[in-house]
């Protein structure tokens, strides 16, 4: 081997090695995907998916006999559902068991009727409208419009139970405060 300066020591030829576990070096690993953990992050997830029409629009189907739905995504402790509603279709009055959620209208408009401790609330959710709810929330969603609607539902934790309420009315002023909706 030729050395320009014979006084310098000869370089050692050896294999390059990494001491320790190369997978323990964070810069060598792909970034860890961060999953939503707060209500605001789940609402942001729903808005992000809503904005990506190429992701959900080709999947939408309409069924005149029942609401159409498909699970779009799952992650640690949550799931995302895509639903379509032809005019007149509704969910019936229900809760979501131990799950909280975010409903986002992707197309059209939906009417929500919710029963609370202070009575009944009605609201119309139009395209881009979003509703966040916690456990124990009793509501009904209906397409009262003349055009079909599409909605995105994020449940956290994932939806494992729903309680349907066949006949339910809001608490009247004469009923005990804090009793919540009455079944009947």
TrEMBL record:
Keywords per UniProt: Dioxygenase, Iron, Metal-binding, Oxidoreductase
Q: Which GO terms describe its molecular function?
A: dioxygenase activity
Question: In terms of domain of life, where is this protein from?
Answer: Bacteria
InterPro entries referenced in this protein's UniProt entry, alphabetically: CDO_1 (IPR010300), RmlC-like_jellyroll (IPR014710), RmlC_Cupin_sf (IPR011051)
Q: Does the keyword Iron apply?
A: yes
Task: Give the family, as the similarity comment puts it.
Answer: Belongs to the cysteine dioxygenase family.
Name of the molecule in the record: Cysteine dioxygenase family protein
Organism source for this protein? Streptomyces silvisoli
